[in-house]
UniProtKB/TrEMBL annotation:
One of its GO terms (molecular function) is polysaccharide binding. Residues 1-23 form the signal peptide. Gene3D superfamilies: Immunoglobulins. It comes from Adhaeribacter aerolatus. This is Uncharacterized protein. Keywords: Signal.
């Protein structure tokens, strides 16, 4: 038997380690997932759209979620792509020496989430990085509320929502564009002067930005239909405030929208206290229908009550605070139960300087215990006598009385779905 010395064993161990290391090195080189060595640092020449119709166009900005084509050199072995410092995932199968395809991540920082974004696209490989000026745009504008749906030409309308950045224009129903468009730095509001020629029956208010056009929703239509009482030519007044003194066209610090309005001016009783002077009840005691039924496509008796809102314009002055003040809407259903729904005034009325604001109360929230309306036809039926009631009440949830002057106009029912 051949004997092995210590030296010979060491030589054999060394050879085994050498071959194992060589095998591992060979496996690493053959690993298809391992990033290959680049021949040179990447170069970005242009960014293009994946849309074939725009394939020849280059651009320096795009929206979150867009898929783009980066054109340049030495892109085949790209290891990283970032937008404003945020890493984007990409498939190396779609990378060649001159092109790489990537989708802009939804979480990429934009001016909507970070005030000082660098607006840079960076592509990196093993040899270095290429930096390209590129703006990632926030989502399209979103209108969540309009200050006053009964606004007129020459007046200022404030839109509330999100993503009012890089705004190009504001288009009103009828296709006319507003002027003096100014968006807040945080993109949460926008003011615009209403142009002449607005036709509320012809569509929605639309904000167009570099990101695209805002989408129509329940808060983008100006007043046109659904009036129950405007205290002028449509006024089925029932009871509450004194019509001789509190249906008026003037009040301290408040300018009428159009003709007369209802006025509540008093120390609102605290602790949910009651007073007829803070109530506006519209009703026709002869049983006439006060709720809208036309146009039929907007006021279909079979439509779910969730499609509808009670709306009115409200202006407030002469009060220290809106905290704890609510607007309650009430109606009576077929068994005479009073169904109520409340909203906080400060969620809609954003100042106490007499400026008018639209307040909306979902009719699906009307309830008395478990009793609710199911469809619009339930509202049209009225109570046991067939009387229809549409009541607005100012409720003070504070313990102490709260002095306030509150004007209410254009009490109406709006279908938020039918267009």
């Amino acid at each position: 038997m051949k004997k092995f010395t210590i030296n010979s064993i060491n030589r054999i161990s060394f050879l085994l380690l050498f071959f194992v290391a060589g095998a591992l090195s060979s496996c690493k080189e053959e690993d298809p997932t391992a990033p290959a060595e680049a021949k040179a640092a990447p170069v970005i020449e242009a960014v293009r759209s994946m849309n074939p119709a725009k394939a020849d166009s280059t651009f320096t900005q795009s929206t979150l979620g867009s898929t783009i084509v980066i054109k340049g050199q030495n892109l085949e072995n790209t290891r990283t792509i970032t937008f404003n410092g945020y890493n984007a995932s990409f498939n190396t199968a779609y990378a060649s020496d001159n092109y790489v395809i990537v989708r802009i991540p939804e979480l990429t920082p934009t001016v909507a989430t970070a005030a000082n974004v660098p607006n840079k696209l960076v592509v990196g490989n093993s040899k270095g990085e290429a930096v390209y000026d590129f703006t990632v745009l926030p989502p399209v504008p979103l209108i969540e509320a309009m200050s006053n749906e009964f606004v007129k030409a020459g007046q200022t309308l404030t839109l509330y929502g999100k993503y009012f950045y890089f705004v190009k224009d504001v288009t009103f129903p009828g296709g006319v564009k507003g002027t003096n468009v100014t968006a807040s730095p945080d993109g949460l509001s926008l003011t615009v002067t209403v142009p002449s020629g607005v036709d509320p029956s012809k569509g929605d208010v639309v904000v167009t930005s570099e990101s695209g056009r805002s989408v129509a929703n329940a808060r983008t239509r100006l007043y046109s239909v659904g009036m129950v009482g405007n205290f002028d030519d449509k006024n089925p007044f029932g009871w509450g405030i004194n019509p001789a003194t509190n249906i008026t066209n003037t009040a301290p610090g408040i300018t009428a929208l159009d003709g007369k309005f209802a006025l509540i001016s008093m120390a609102l009783p605290g602790g949910y206290g009651w007073s007829n002077d803070k109530v506006i009840n519209l009703a026709d005691y002869n049983g006439a229908q006060i709720f809208p039924t036309q146009p039929a496509n907007m006021y279909n008796a079979e439509d779910p009550i969730a499609n509808f809102e009670a709306r009115m314009e409200v202006a407030v002055t002469n009060t220290a605070s809106l905290n704890g003040l609510q607007l309650q809407v009430m109606t009576q259903e077929a068994t005479d139960k009073e169904l109520t729904a409340n909203v906080n005034l400060k969620d809609f009325v954003r100042s106490t300087d007499g400026k008018w604001y639209t307040v909306a109360v979902p009719l699906a929230n009307l309830a008395n215990g478990s009793t609710k309306l199911a469809k619009y036809g339930d509202l049209l039926k009225g109570n046991k006598k067939g009387e229809k009631h549409y009541r607005a009440v100012i409720v003070n949830t504070n313990a102490a009385d709260v002095p306030a002057t509150i004007a209410i106009d254009n009490m109406r029912i709006v279908n938020t779905v039918a267009r």
